[in-house]
Design brief:
Elements lengths: L2 H7 L20 H9 L2 E12 L3 E12 L2 H21 L7 E15 L4 E17 L5 H10 L4 E8 L3 H26 L2 E12 L8 E2 L2 H4 L11 E15 L2
Antiparallel strand pairs: 1-8, 2-4, 2-5, 3-4, 5-7, 6-8
Length: about 250
């Protein structure tokens, strides 16, 4: 392999997105197919991101009750949860935005040292619901209200950008621009010119952000301060280009 060919081939940098599975996506001329076989192409990755303010939130909250019997614990829990759910509806939360997430009945055990065994010493009932707050400005108010109504459990809050896919379009443009800039720079450094685009792929970045934990002492305050912040929406693309020998 001549030096120029070797330098061009080296532009398919390790770690970038694979090209071979994508070849059927875009029709190629016979000349392009020949160039591909001889290694006169480059693969690069580009990244783009935008910041967006959340406009809604999912909150997990509920009630934990303890009693001597499972029936007593369940009765107390049912009464408390009905009060919370009715209060949420009265506050303007739609029925479809209140969903039971967890329900548990568990025995509590007590150690008896003189007998060398555990015995049931009561029961706990936990009922949690996920509440979608579509008006983000009311989030602190809703959190304060559920505590006033009897909630003593709050495990997470997940901020949501409802039009995230639309917002990502700008990130996609930035990712393509970044990839093209990198490809052009690498081609020029290798003594070649950037040719036509052969493939473009979008890569999913990571997993959805996990819900942010909430602590009980924050829920006990007279007013619940909420910092919404912003979400980073990111896109990563892989692009492959034909390379032309610079004259």
């Amino acid at each position: 392999m001549d030096p120029l060919m070797k330098s061009l081939t080296s532009l398919a940098v390790a770690g970038f997105l694979p090209l071979v599975p994508l070849l059927g996506a875009v029709p190629m001329t016979s000349a392009e197919a020949q160039e591909l076989r001889t290694g006169r192409w480059a693969m690069v990755a580009g990244h783009g991101s935008v910041e967006a303010a959340p406009d809604s939130a999912d909150v997990t909250t509920g009630v934990l009750t303890d009693a001597a019997t499972a029936r007593e614990a369940l009765t107390a829990n049912n009464a408390a949860m009905r009060k919370i759910i009715e209060g949420l509806k009265a506050a303007g939360i739609d029925t479809k935005d209140i969903k039971t997430q967890q329900f548990q009945i568990q025995p509590r055990y007590r150690n008896f040292k003189d007998r060398g065994a555990q015995q049931i010493d009561g029961y706990s009932v936990r009922n949690q619901v996920e509440v979608k707050v579509r008006q983000i400005a009311r989030l602190g108010e809703i959190l304060d209200q559920v505590v006033t109504l009897g909630a003593n459990q709050a495990s997470s809050i997940n901020f949501i950008v409802s039009d995230a896919e639309k917002r990502k379009d700008e990130a996609r443009k930035k990712a393509v621009e970044n990839a093209m800039h990198r490809a052009r720079l690498l081609a020029e450094a290798a003594g070649a010119r950037l040719g036509s685009v052969m493939t473009i792929t979008e890569e999913v970045i990571g997993a959805p952000r996990p819900p942010r934990p909430m602590v009980a002492r924050s829920m006990a305050a007279d007013s619940v301060p909420i910092e919404i912040g912003s979400e980073t929406l990111s896109v990563r693309v892989g692009m492959s280009f034909m390379l032309e020998v610079a004259v």
